[in-house]
Design a protein that fits this description.
single chain, alpha+beta, Herpes Virus-1, three-stranded antiparallel β-sheet, 2 helices
Length: 69
């Protein structure tokens, strides 16, 4: 399952900084997600409404922590 997780933000294409996940299961840096949401209320990837919900991406944080060990 971990292999299915992205390694970079879909917006900035860089390694995640404070990763968040949308209800449609797309992952972004928190800053990127909020900046995009200010201009467009839909998901950057699939164009579904995000409703402004960006949860901390615990799966990505765990993966990042494991890679740093």
């Amino acid at each position: 399952m971990d292999d299915e997780l992205p390694f970079a933000c879909f917006i900035c294409r860089k390694l995640f900084v404070d990763p968040v996940v949308t209800k449609c299961k797309h992952y972004f840096c928190e800053h990127c997600a909020l900046k995009h949401h200010a201009k467009n209320k839909k998901c950057f990837v699939c164009n579904q409404p995000t409703l402004g919900i960006f949860n901390t991406a615990q799966e990505i944080l765990k993966k990042m922590a494991a890679e740093n060990k």
